[in-house]
């Protein structure tokens, strides 16, 4: 993972705190009905309620030490109603965000907690929530036209998470995956790291339902088999993988069919 290659582990809790604070600062004075350009079905109050709800959810799991999915479902069913005004939404966000940060700081990273991913630990929830806050901080800034820089190392880790976990695939005995193109290298021009992805079509039965989706098989570094390359700053590639606008150009070179196959994987929303 890029976070451990240089400079030691990333301070996810610091990033969570800083981006949550910036998110609140931006939305506190935004018009309630201002549209969020990167999430056009939401207005500013919807975005505030969304991240507040996400941080409430994971803060509740951390505070109660939940590891059982049935307990998590019951907890989620009992969440409070959405406040009807901006002051109520801000108050809800403040309580949820403060508790999430406090509870995650108090737990050793290896603490078992319920998680939808294979890594069911407080440490991964720290990582996931740092990236959640980052992406929605950007959404808030885009809403008011006040974009600020994204930390390079955090963005590089975000690329790794987006490729491997949010858009990635690990071979599973119940699922079949078939490559739909040759491999493509994704390279950062500032974080000194690259990945090679192979777009695959995945079919089979997962959690009791039939699926047919496209995802990535992911490896570290360049690969001689790659027939195309996508490059840019870590911040821009992270934004691109989350279907958010970039600040500068992302360069695409090589086989057009392979590049189109990468785009097909990114067509799925991961909001």
TrEMBL record:
Mycothiol-dependent maleylpyruvate isomerase metal-binding domain: which residues?
14-140
- One short Pfam name that applies is MDMPI_N
Return the InterPro entries for the record.
DinB/YfiT-like, Maleyloyr_isom, MDMPI_metal-binding
- List the PANTHER family hit by this protein, alphabetically: CONSERVED PROTEIN
The protein in question is named Mycothiol-dependent maleylpyruvate isomerase metal-binding domain-containing protein
Taxonomy of the source species:
Bacteria, Bacillati, Actinomycetota, Actinomycetes, Micrococcales
């Amino acid at each position: 993972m890029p976070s451990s290659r240089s400079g030691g582990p990333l301070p996810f809790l610091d990033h969570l705190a800083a981006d949550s604070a910036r998110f609140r600062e931006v939305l506190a004075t935004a018009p309630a009905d201002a549209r969020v350009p990167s999430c056009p079905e939401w207005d500013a109050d919807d975005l505030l309620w969304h991240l507040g709800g996400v941080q409430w959810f994971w803060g509740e799991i951390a505070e109660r030490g939940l590891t059982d999915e049935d307990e998590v479902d019951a907890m989620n069913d009992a969440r409070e109603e959405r406040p009807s005004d901006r002051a109520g939404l801000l108050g809800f966000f403040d309580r949820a965000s403060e508790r999430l940060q406090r509870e995650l700081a108090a737990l050793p990273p290896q603490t078992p907690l319920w998680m939808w991913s294979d890594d069911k630990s407080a440490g991964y929830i720290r990582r996931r929530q740092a990236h959640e806050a980052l992406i929605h901080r950007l959404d808030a800034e885009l809403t008011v036209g006040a974009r600020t820089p994204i930390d390079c190392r955090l963005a590089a880790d975000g690329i790794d998470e987006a490729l491997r976990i949010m858009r990635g695939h690990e071979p599973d005995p119940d699922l079949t995956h078939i490559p739909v193109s040759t491999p493509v290298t994704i390279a950062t021009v500032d974080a000194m790291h690259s990945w090679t992805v192979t777009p695959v079509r995945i079919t089979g039965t997962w959690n009791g339902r039939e699926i047919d989706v496209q995802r990535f098989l992911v490896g570290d570094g360049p690969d001689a088999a790659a027939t195309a390359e996508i490059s840019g700053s870590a911040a821009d590639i992270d934004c691109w993988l989350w279907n958010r606008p970039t600040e500068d150009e992302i360069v695409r070179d090589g086989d057009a069919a392979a590049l189109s196959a990468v785009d097909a994987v990114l067509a799925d929303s991961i909001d």
